[in-house]
Amino acid sequence: MDAGMADISYGELEIKDYLLPLENSETRSTPISHVMLHFSSNVTEKPHTPYQVEDTHKIFIDYGVSAHYVIDREGVIYKFVQEDRIAYHAGSGSLSRFPAYENKLNAYSIGIELLAIGTKEEMSTFITEDTYDALDNSFIGYTDAQYESLKSLLHTIHDRYPEVKRDREHVIGHDEYAPDRKNDPGSLFDWGRIGY
């Protein structure tokens, strides 16, 4: 892990600070009203070890994208982008109840990536059916530790940003904002596990 990584905390919640370069984000001047959930992995390149946080960090740098937080399979939370900066995680899309946010949700949201792999259909643009079938079953879906950490992280976000309401209109999946492009966090994600 990067020697410059430090630990920070919000009350009882510990977060490992593993910041991306500043060019992977920009200064925020807009209020935070949403959280967007994603899944990611390096299954295309490393199907036997798809969940190395260092790989995710490097992929984000290489592609010029970012998220504020990444939660690994053991529930460890990594901060990739400071919350006072806009991360590049949402891209183009829209929410029917928030028309002013069309193609602009990055500016109003916190992005959280969970290291996870979806269903065979959801992963079909990334890996072949044979590769999917050969995956360790424990790689598919989400872990109990991830749900617990995500729930705790969301609790601190709600406390710090009252505009982020505790409902499914303000805590959303990437697939709800950009259904033609994205399918994460996918059908294996259990919203009930985090109280929504």
TrEMBL record:
One of its GO terms (biological process) is cell wall organization. Residues 20-186 form the N-acetylmuramoyl-L-alanine amidase domain. It comes from Oceanobacillus profundus. This is N-acetylmuramoyl-L-alanine amidase. Pfam families: Amidase_2. The lineage of its organism: Bacteria, Bacillati, Bacillota, Bacilli, Bacillales. One of its GO terms (molecular function) is N-acetylmuramoyl-L-alanine amidase activity. It catalyses: Hydrolyzes the link between N-acetylmuramoyl residues and L-amino acid residues in certain cell-wall glycopeptides. Its EC number is 3.5.1.28. SUPFAM superfamilies: N-acetylmuramoyl-L-alanine amidase-like (SSF55846). InterPro entries: Amidase/PGRP_sf, Amidase_domain, NAMLAA_amidase_2. Keywords: Cell wall biogenesis/degradation, Hydrolase.
